[in-house]
């Protein structure tokens, strides 16, 4: 089902599986977790596991809404993944935009306020929706990012992607 993304055009990737580490902060408090993210078109499944407590959350959804399992109080639903993570975990994470950002692309349908490219023509830094996004490392083949940092006011999100796979066509 999954294969290495070597040589794949990032804009053509509709389904992917990535795994790694996520860290978030609001300037005072923060948290980190290992994650596995499976994206199939507009549908996503995102599993988070905190390292110390081994607490696990499963976030899933699509453009109609999102569901979070594993939080205190049982399963929760909301109109967006962003709302759920904020309400339940206190994390400000732009999940919809990250779907594009993890592929090294700006969020579809939203203009970039500024952009800086590296020597290979890839986005290096850009601003979008009030977020400043930077790619600090890429896969060896250079096509997809493996380290992403995003900041908005006091909020920061860092992803360190250790495993990239795309759906086999």
TrEMBL record:
It is found in: Cell outer membrane. GO terms for cellular component: cell outer membrane. It comes from the Bacteria. SUPFAM superfamilies: Prokaryotic lipoproteins and lipoprotein localization factors. One of its GO terms (biological process) is protein transport. It is a lipid-anchor. InterPro entries: LolA/LolB/LppX, OM_lipoprot_LolB. Keywords: Cell outer membrane, Chaperone, Lipoprotein, Membrane, Palmitate, Protein transport, Signal, Transport. The keyword RNA-binding does not apply. NCBIfam families: lolB. Monomer. Belongs to the LolB family. This is Outer-membrane lipoprotein LolB.
């Amino acid at each position: 089902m999954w294969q290495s993304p070597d040589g794949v055009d990032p804009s053509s990737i509709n389904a992917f599986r990535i795994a790694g580490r996520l860290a978030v902060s609001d300037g005072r408090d923060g948290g980190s977790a290992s994650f596995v993210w499976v994206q199939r078109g507009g549908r996503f499944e995102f599993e988070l596991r905190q390292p110390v407590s081994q607490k696990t959350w499963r976030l899933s959804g699509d453009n109609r809404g999102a569901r979070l399992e594993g939080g205190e109080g049982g399963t929760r639903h909301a109109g967006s993944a962003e709302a759920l993570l904020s309400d339940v975990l206190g994390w400000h994470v732009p999940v919809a935009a990250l779907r594009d950002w993890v592929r090294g692309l700006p969020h579809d349908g939203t203009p970039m306020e500024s952009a800086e490219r590296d020597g290979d023509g890839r986005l290096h830094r850009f601003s979008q929706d009030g977020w400043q996004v930077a790619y600090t490392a890429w896969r060896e083949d250079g096509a997809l990012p493996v380290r992403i940092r995003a900041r908005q006011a006091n909020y920061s999100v860092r992803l360190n992607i250790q495993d990239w796979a795309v759906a086999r066509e």
